[in-house]
Specification:
Helix content: 10-25%
Number of strands: 12
Number of helices: 5
Strand order of the largest sheet: 6-7-8-12
Order of helices and strands: EEEHEEEEEHHHHEEEE
Largest sheet: 4 strands, antiparallel
Shape: elongated
Radius of gyration: 27 Å
Length: 315
């Protein structure tokens, strides 16, 4: 039962009508364990699927949930945490993981507690095997214990912080978030050029768009269609800044979104910016930052100083 996935035999998975043909044994209490007379679990042989004791009528305690209804925060597995009980944990600044592991399969962020010794980490919440006295969500019995190996009774969950406009993240400053709040656009902290040539002033490259989400494709189109050196799209495309190399030349609408947040982005030129949205063979869209208006008649060669460049990247 505990080493294989549950088999659904009726009802709808994830709802109160869910039925499994290989259900867990034991009695649901204030935590997901089967305590014996000595206080240790003898009835459950491994972690349970999240929410295994919840039903259409079970309350928060019976379900082993938190005040917010999050399942299995007690009584299933100890959950890893960064502890405030040691200096190494207190030094943690909330830096996001980057998805990269070392050759030893450990996190490569130096700002995280040591991934070999686990100093600065701990666990909370109890598990299916330990005494019921440790089953509370707020239990701190092992809050500062260095758990630097794999244990059948220890697990964890990843969390993501909420991003905000103006937040320093991903090599720059967030100036746009989509509806999920987890993805958006980042502006470089400063301009890449105070004035740059858009490129190929008598050639209509074609295929660029003004819409949000098209700047990266626009950049590729321009770089492939215009072989002039040191043009705006190539400057952004070749940029390596603050550990990131996926910067691009923003589209008209992306640049406009950045302009709307110019106060938090900072460092804006008081003249104008060019973007990756082409207007015709002679010109590209240009933003006047002194009043927020656009024009599509300035040449591609960088005229009258309205030609600053600011790279962006998506996350």
């Amino acid at each position: 039962v505990y080493t294989t996935a549950y088999t659904f035999s009726g009802g709808t998975a994830g709802t109160a009508s869910e039925v499994v043909s290989n259900p867990a044994t034991g009695t649901a209490g204030n935590a997901n364990c089967g305590p014996s007379a000595t206080g240790n679990s003898k009835n459950i042989g491994g972690p349970l699927r999240v929410g295994s004791f919840s039903t259409g009528t079970s309350d928060r305690i019976i379900s082993g949930a938190t005040c917010y209804g999050i399942m299995e925060m007690s009584g299933n597995v100890w959950e890893y945490l960064v502890t405030a009980g040691k200096a190494e944990g207190r030094a943690f600044s909330g830096t996001h993981g980057n998805g990269v592991l070392t050759t030893g399969d450990e996190a490569d962020l130096t700002t995280w507690p040591n991934t070999s010794s686990a100093v600065g980490t701990g666990a909370r919440g109890g598990n299916f095997y330990d005494p019921v006295a440790w089953m509370g969500v707020s239990n701190r019995d092992r809050a500062a214990q260095n758990l630097n190996a794999r244990y059948m009774s220890v697990g964890g969950r990843g969390v993501r912080r909420a991003f905000t406009i103006g937040q320093s993240f991903g090599g720059g400053i967030i100036f746009y978030l989509d509806a999920t709040g987890q993805h958006g656009l980042i502006a470089a902290p400063s301009d890449q050029r105070s004035c740059a040539q858009w490129g190929c002033p008598v050639t209509f490259i074609g295929g660029t768009s003004t819409l949000p989400g098209t700047g990266k494709a626009n950049t590729t189109i321009i770089v492939n269609g215009c072989n002039e050196a040191d043009i705006a799209a190539k400057i952004c495309n070749d940029l390596e800044l603050n550990g990131y190399d996926d910067w691009f030349f923003p589209s008209k609408d992306e640049l406009d979104l950045m302009y709307q947040q110019k106060t938090v982005v900072g460092g804006f030129s008081e003249s104008g910016y060019i973007c990756s949205s082409e207007a015709d063979q002679w010109s590209a869209w240009t933003l006047y930052t002194f009043d927020g208006t656009w024009n599509n008649y300035l040449g591609k060669i960088g005229e009258w100083g309205y030609c600053a460049v600011r790279a962006v990247r998506a996350f």
